[in-house]
Amino acid sequence: MNGSAYMQGHDASTLASHRTRSAEKQADYLLPRITATSRILDVGCGPGTITCDFAKLASQGEVIGVDYSETAVGSAQAEAEERGITNVKFRTGTAHKLPFDDETFDIVHCHAVLVHIPDVPAALKEMRRVCKTGGYVAAGEPDWETCIVHPYDPRLERWIEVHRELKRRENVEPRCGRYLGSWALEAGFAQDKITVACDVLHYFGAEQVRWWGELYSKRMQTEVGERALKYGVATAEEVEQFATAYLRWSQTEGALWAMTRMKLLAEK
Ligand SMILES: C[S@@+](CC[C@H](N)C(=O)[O-])C[C@H]1O[C@@H](n2cnc3c(N)ncnc32)[C@H](O)[C@@H]1O
User: Which of 45, 90, 105, 179 is most buried per CB count within 10 Å?
Assistant: First the structure.
């Protein structure tokens, strides 16, 4: 048990989708806290593009990316090598048991990780433990109950319900974003040291819509669909319909997909 209910898998298309991410886009709220000498931990680093961006900013500091998946760690190492970044390291590890001493990092960050794991307050407590006093724990996580899919398609609306049910079966909170402030309090942060900001993750325009729709259509035919069947939250016929509906949506002019993302910044 690695304390995760991560269901996107680590195949090439999923890692490629995460590889489009950057510190500038996904961790904008954190950038003013990063200095040239910061020691930063990126939990659930995936293919490491955000982590490598941190290492560039903390050019005289040290950055470590941790992920429970060896495939993700391998991909992140390749990313750092390709970019010629030498002050970043990657290793396997799980969010609930970080392989570091207390008070090690100036910043402990994660993006799109807490929405995949059970018992988030325990994970935030662990992130707080390895953070220095005066340092920051930062998390950017979506809230799936704010999801807007246009144009309306009953199959995609049904998928959002199935997704919610699937996450709950795995003791994971799909509305993660809205809980971040409360969970930070539970993890031991003081109310006046916590801020939560929001932005909207969205896909619009032929290229973005095609990419997102095709990605989800494929996920239906692989790990996500398999998990829906495993937990009995959808029938095989429905899973097939979800895949077809995403593909159709991906080819629709004027289509939009949007979801609120909350950004927690908590000072220890
Ligand atoms: C959606 S991806 C996000 C990757 C990266 N943070 C980004 O935004 O590009 C989630 C990552 O968290 C990792 N993960 C899931 N559960 C984890 C856990 N309990 N401990 C460590 N990593 C975990 C997965 O392997 C995956 O690489």
Answer: 45
174 within domain boundaries: yes
Residue ranges making up the domain that contains 194: 12-267
Which pTM value belongs to this model? 0.92
* Mutate which of 6, 51, 115, 216 for ligand 1 pocket (most atoms within 8 A of beta carbon): 6
For residue 124, tell me if it sits in a domain: yes
Which CATH number does the domain housing residue 186 bear? Answer: 3.40.50.150
Residues near ligand 1 with C-beta < 6 Å?
A: 2-4, 6, 8, 18, 21, 26, 44-46, 50, 67-69, 72, 94-95, 111-113, 116-117
Q: How many domains does the chain have?
A: 1
Give me ligand 1 centre to Cα 212, in Å. Answer: 19
Say which amino acid occupies 59.
S
Which residues 6+ apart lie within 8 Å of 9 measured at CB?
219, 222, 223
List per-residue pLDDT tens for the chain, 268 residues long: 345 666 666 666 566 566 678 999 999 999 999 999 999 999 999 999 999 999 999 999 999 999 999 999 999 999 999 999 999 999 999 999 999 999 999 999 999 999 999 999 999 999 999 999 999 999 999 999 999 999 999 999 999 999 999 999 999 999 999 999 999 999 999 999 999 999 999 999 999 999 999 999 999 998 889 999 999 999 999 999 999 999 999 999 999 999 999 999 999 9
**What does the block give as tokens for 253?**
């002019």
In the three-class reduction of DSSP (H, G, I as helix; E, B as strand; rest coil), residue 160 is classed as helix
